[in-house]
# Entry
Amino acid sequence: MNTEVVTINQDNIDHGAIKRAGEIIRRGGLVAFPTETVYGLGGDALNPESSQKIYSAKGRPSDNPLIVHISKLDDLYKIAEEIPEDALKLSEAYWPGPLTMIFKKKPIVPKETTGGLETVAVRMPSDKTARALIEASGGFIAAPSANISGRPSPTSAKFVCEDMCGRIDMIIDGGDSEVGLESTIVDFSEGKPVILRPGFISAEMIQSVLGVYVGTDPALKHEGDRPKAPGMKYRHYAPKGELTVIYGASDRVVEKINSLVSEDIRNGYSVGIIASSENAKKYREGTVKPVGSAGNNEETAHSLFRVLREFDDENTEKIYSEAFDEKGVGAAIMNRLLKAAGHKIIDLTKEDL
Ligand code: AMP
Ligand code: MG
# Structure
């Protein structure tokens, strides 16, 4: 299959190109498109065959449901039931934006889209190209991240093409993704809201709107437990190289990574380091990739997946990453980083005991 790549600037939208992309989706084809989180792989959410095509293009297990993207609140009522007041409060505060909410589904949403579940995940993205495409496609786009299953989510059209060129009809290039991590997922299908996947909209931001404590699915911290978002059980975001995360006081982490890197290099490995910009110059060997200033988690979120993919492109065999502060969006960064590392960590705070 020939994949057409079209550039669209969200501040000056080419409506002719959007119309063509919308027609591809209406006909049952697939279009990858930019959103503020990461690039999505879009098909008609109400067409079971489109969802099946998404699973096969990604190599994604079919029990892992897709998020349905809408462009206006009215459309939420067409696909979801029992929408609680708290969900509407969150939609008012954070939609359009990087927040997904889960509700009981209406029969119009096929089981192929929801991975066999009776619930549906819904998000209204803020990217203007994404919203124009949703409208042009009939209002409901099912879109997981536009990567081959298991690889880091793509934050640019170049990364989408690495995985998807030849497998889908079109890629819309809208530049680098602003947030760089997937949306926060909040489940409302069992009454009380629960965070199933941390994201840019932090627990603190959700609690400040709802005025109550909102918990995170405990299975995210206990390996072996079954998470409520089926996707969270799969190994994810994994670079090809072996990634290890090092916890501890900043200077000791630098010292430890320096000694691990020099041993690996002596043994003939190519080695990469993921560091805060403040620490980057303290590393003596290896390829250092700064991901942002310590304490500026937004910058780190924006860069993390790009850096993991760059290490793949460079065939890096061993990667060491500093651990980042878990406040705010830091919880999402550490969730993705630990999954990418398959939970391989060195905890220097424990070695002190
Ligand atoms: P992705 O679109 O690649 O970011 O993945 C979507 C995530 O949302 C996966 O982790 C899914 O398991 C999760 N998800 C989507 N729909 C549901 C649902 N109805 N119930 C629970 N988790 C869901
Ligand atoms: Mg994904």
In short: Residues 144-145, 153 surround magnesium ion (ligand 2) (CB under 6 Å). The chain has two domains: 4-216, 242-351.
